[in-house]
Amino acid sequence: MNTNPRILLVDDDTTALDLMREILSEKKYEVDTASSVDGAIEKLRSQHYHALITDLKMPEKSGIELLEYVAGTYPDIPVIMLTAYGTIQT
Question: What gap in Å lies between CA 15 and CA 73, rounded to an integer?
Answer without folding.
Answer: 29
